[in-house]
Amino acid sequence: MSRISAEEQQRLAETLAEAVKASSDAEQASGQAQAQAARQAAEIEALLEGGERLALRGRDLRASVQELRDTLERGRLSTLNAALEGARLGEVAGRALMSMTEEVRSALGRSADVLDDHAARVAELERERERLVLALGPLADAARAVASEVTRAAERNRSQRDALSELALELRQQLGVDPELGGLVARAQQEATDLLDTLSALQARGAQDEARVLFARVAALAKPSSTDES
Amino acid sequence: MAPLSPALPLNRAGVIVRLGGELRFLSAHSVRRFVPPPTLSDVAGTGLTMALVDGQVLAIIPVGPRGSALTVCELGGELVGLLGADPEAVGFFEADGAGVSFHGQRAQVLDVAELVRASARRTFEQEAEV
Question: Which of A45, A167, A202, B18 makes a 20 to 30 Å CA pair with B123?
Answer without folding.
Answer: B18
